[in-house]
Write a structure and sequence with these properties.
The protein contains 15 helices and 15 strands. The protein has helices at 3-22, 36-42, 64-80, 93-104, 132-135, 155-167, 188-197, 210-214, 221-224, 252-263, 269-306, 334-343, 374-378, 383-397, 403-414; strands spanning 25-26, 85-87, 110-113, 140-143, 146-147, 152-153, 172-178, 201-205, 228-232, 243-247, 310-311, 323-327, 346-347, 349-351, 368-372. The radius of gyration is 22 Å and the shape is globular. It is 42% helix and 13% strand. The chain has a domain at 39-280: 3-Layer(aba) Sandwich (Aspartate Aminotransferase, domain 2), CATH 3.40.640.10. The longest helix has 38 residues, at 269-306. By secondary structure, it is of the alpha/beta class. It binds pyridoxal-5'-phosphate. Pyridoxal-5'-phosphate is lined by residues 30, 92-94, 97, 121, 123, 178-180, 205, 207-208, 232, 243.
């Protein structure tokens, strides 16, 4: 095999991926589909340049237009999230969290965050699990007490736990709200005063729900008392992959230093350009989109529950976000169900649920799956389509129908949802492959 053939094969595999997604129902809660305008920005020459530092104070020449775009991006982030300060340079949500750890704690300090089965992210995790907070910044991690019934952090138990930690001489330096399995708002406003009285810095990790917050349809962490909010730019927010931090002005300097030089050198300028376009779309379409996302998530949850699925959070109406969690242990485990659905072009992920670790389960074979509707909503699906998706899932998971029966129906169903909605361009196909070379 020569290099040219290998190149052709690589590009062919990428095209095959595009074709597959054209024909699939994408339900990964942390994913979305960016608009053609975002994809154009990402394909630009910005991605080949360096611009270390802050706009106007760069370490490199050649940044005339890059500075203008980055300023627009930061301005938009401040407007969309009603924040005094924004830094759009974090190259991912993990890097945004690392910047907060670096700016507001020292190795050996303690952070309180959610455990993974109760929704926490690996970037909040302990060293022994190779979690970023423990492994990279040397933080000790304690977990928020969790109410399984309410599927959120337990306020009174958290106060007791923190008082005990203080009495033991291990007060938390940072309280990290937010998470990856995230059905209901976290009690930021209920705990902010208590935490601030004890000099605990509050960060809200809005990686998953940033697009809902941008649309004004979830909690509003900065108004509820969070000192800063970190996020990914590509989950319910519909930008390219990356991170953003917003905060009060008084935290601007430590955050800027923690991003550069602390945690980045190149900051993926094509993605900054894409984030700017995505935030401009948020101004225009963010509210309508966020409302429909939440309606769709609720409808999918109710439809699955009607078929007999054990959807978590029943007492509270299953979800107030873009995602739902289903205990599928009656039909297999999360790992095998994920595979069965993937064969039918229904793409979601297995999920550790509260209590799984204690029951001896692990991330390969957890009891649940997580289902998210950010991408199908962006493709124009509404409540009726959620009922159809629930029926497809039932056919695969409960009825154990054959792939040859379900797959053609899934492909047929998807044919009507090939454009990105809530965007200024409505002509280009969502998964259109951008061809630059002739091979
Ligand atoms: C996805 C996620 C992250 C990581 O974001 P990346 O952009 O993938 O680095 C951080 N925190 C939470 C809660 C997440 O769900």
């Amino acid at each position: 095999m020569n290099g040219k053939e290998i190149q052709r094969d690589i590009l062919k595999l990428i095209r095959e991926h595009h074709d597959w997604f054209n024909n699939s129902i994408p339900l990964i809660a942390s994913e979305n589909i960016p608009s053609p305008a975002v994809r154009e920005a990402v394909a630009s020459d910005f991605g080949n340049r360096y611009a270390e530092g802050w706009p106007g104070e760069r370490v490199y020449a050649g940044c005339t237009y890059i500075d203008k775009v980055e300023n627009i991006c930061n301005d938009l982030a401040r407007v969309v999230f009603k924040a005094e300060f924004a830094d759009c340079r974090a190259t991912s949500g993990v890097v945004a969290n690392l910047a907060i750890y670096s700016a507001f704690s020292n190795p050996g300090d303690t952070m309180i965050a959610s455990s993974i089965p109760t929704g926490g992210h690996i970037s909040h995790g302990k060293k022994e699990h190779s979690g970023t907070a423990g492994l990279v910044h040397g933080l000790m991690i304690e977990h928020f007490p969790f109410s399984k019934e309410n599927m959120t952090i337990d306020v009174e138990e958290t106060k007791k736990k923190i008082n005990n930690m203080i009495n033991d001489g291990r007060p938390p330096k940072i309280a990290m709200f937010g998470g990856s399995l995230f059905l209901f708002p976290h009690p930021v406003k209920e705990l902010a005063e208590f935490l601030h009285e004890k000099n605990i810095y509050i960060n809200y990790d809005g990686a998953h729900v940033a697009g809902l917050i941008a649309g004004g349809q979830f909690q509003d962490p900065l108004r509820e008392g969070a000192d800063s909010m970190t996020m990914s730019s590509h989950k319910t927010l519909w930008g390219p992959q990356g991170g953003i931090i917003v905060s009060a002005e008084k935290y601007a300097e430590p955050i800027k230093k923690a991003i550069f030089p602390g945690n980045t050198s190149s900051h993926h300028l094509h993605h900054v350009a894409g984030k700017a376009v995505a935030l401009a779309e948020s101004l225009e379409f963010g509210q309508d989109y966020a409302k429909q996302v939440i309606k769709n998530a609720k409808m999918l949850a109710y439809s699955l529950a009607n078929y007999g699925f054990k959807v978590l959070g029943e007492k509270r109406g299953y979800t107030e976000s873009h995602q739902l969690a289903v205990d599928v242990s009656n039909y297999g485990d999360g790992g095998t169900i994920e595979k069965e659905l993937e064969r039918c072009n229904i793409i979601l992920n297995r999920q550790l649920l509260p209590g799984d670790i204690k029951e001896g389960r692990n991330y390969l074979h957890p009891s649940g799956v997580r289902i998210g509707v950010p991408e199908v909503t962006r493709l124009g699906m509404k409540e009726n389509e959620m009922q159809e998706i629930a029926t497809f899932i039932k056919k695969v998971v409960i009825d154990k129908q054959d792939v040859s029966k379900v797959l053609p129906k899934v492909i047929e169903f998807k044919k009507d949802f090939q454009k990105v909605h809530y965007a200024f361009d409505d002509k280009t196909s969502a998964y259109q492959y951008i061809q630059l070379v002739n091979i």
